[in-house]
Amino acid sequence: MTQPTGPRPRLDVRGAVDLSSLGRPPAPAPGGPAGAAPGSDGVPAGVVVDVTEATFPDLVQRSVEVPVVLTLWAAGDAASTAVTATLVQIAGELGGRLLVGRIDVERSPQVAQAVSAQSGSTVVAVVKGQAVPLPPLEQATGEQVRAVLDQVLQMAAANGVTGRVPVDGEPAPVVEEPPLPPLHQAAYDAIERDDLDAAVAAYTQALAENPRDEDARIGLAQVELLRRTQGVDPSAARASAAADPADVAAQLVVADLDVLGGMVEDAFARLVDTVRRTAGEDREQARVRLVELFAVVGDTDPRVMTARRALASALY
Predict the structure, then answer these.
(1) Residue 20: DSSP 8-state
(2) Residue closest to 94 by CA, chosen among 50, 40, 154, 158
(3) Which of 117, 151, 164, 264 is most solvent-facing, going by the fewest CB within 10 Å?
(4) What pLDDT score does 119 carry?
């Protein structure tokens, strides 16, 4: 059960949030209140969270460290409340190896719709941000639910997700970062002392030794961006680009500044437009810079995927 290594849907919530449910008193969550005191009718603090539109993205992000199980429930649906209560109970027994996210479909319809539409299931495991629908559990015994969750833990371990959530007020576990490869560490140290040339040299050597070193490729692209923008006057650069849209070099500088400032879509749109209206060497310069900035942002970023399609349209 190692599905997350394949192309699975990434959970997302977009659009307006439905506020119609905020005036209703919440129904008691199945399994007891999140964070209940030990020994009460609840569960050990930390193993269950109640999911809202605001907290959903952070919960999905936590699946990078610890496997998450999302369960949809409704106050009037005995089957969904029973399944959710069982999941919460077993999560408590697992001692923080798994986190349960309870989604009240009446109070958080946007999240519920996103999960069910993207997974086709009411109980979903999330590992590294990727959804894996679980089999129907409405008729399952506690032992059968436990067996499914054991499979989720095995799947998570196979994908390198082996963290724990702190329970009952215990301190969060200290996660020690593995040491960086020597050339990566040299690049990092060079950046810390503001020696960007040395950082570029270290990453370049790492790529020469291993052309498939993706971290070195991304690191080199990021350091090159920092080096290109060193000493650039942003106001003067933007004025120059606005005054002469045909000045390709000026457009490249502003695109760099936009990515550095977090205006990624603006940078990509500027360079796609430059590719579209130029030819020859100018077009190639814009294309190459755009591809370099794709590496800076990350090839799996949705903005990069959109810009790649726009670039292909501009080229062909």
Answers:
(1) G
(2) 154
(3) 117
(4) 66
Residue count (the chain): 316
Nearest CA among 9, 20, 49 for reference residue 33: 49
**17/100: higher pLDDT:** 100
Q: CA-to-CA distance for 31 and 91, rounded, in angstroms?
A: 10
State the CB neighbour count (10 A cutoff) for residue 193: 9
Cα–Cα distance for residue pair 117/59, rounded to 1 Å = 18
Count of CB atoms situated within 10 Å of the CB of 100: 26
Write down the residue that tokens 């500027």 correspond to.
Answer: 270
**DSSP state for residue 262 in the 8-state scheme:** T
Q: Is the dihedral of CA 180, 186, 187, 192 positive or negative?
A: positive
Note the pTM of the prediction, 2 decimals: 0.48
CATH architecture of the region 233-316: Alpha Horseshoe (1.25)
Q: Provide the 10 A C-beta neighbour count for residue 26.
A: 12
Q: Which carries the bigger pLDDT value, residue 13 or residue 202?
A: 202
**Which structure tokens are listed for 136?**
């129907």
Instruction: Give the pLDDT mean for 85-93.
Output: 89
The tokens of 262 are what? Answer: 């977090």
Beta partners for 70? 101, 124
The superfamily CATH assigns to domain 3-158 is Glutaredoxin (3.40.30.10)
Q: Which residue, 129, 134, 127, is CA-closest to 149? A: 134
Which pLDDT belongs to residue 299? 77
Q: Where are the domains of the chain?
A: 3-158, 180-230, 233-316
pLDDT tens digits, 14-27: 332 232 333 344 45
Which tens digit of pLDDT belongs to each residue from 204-246?
A: 999 999 999 988 998 999 999 999 999 999 999 999 999 999 9
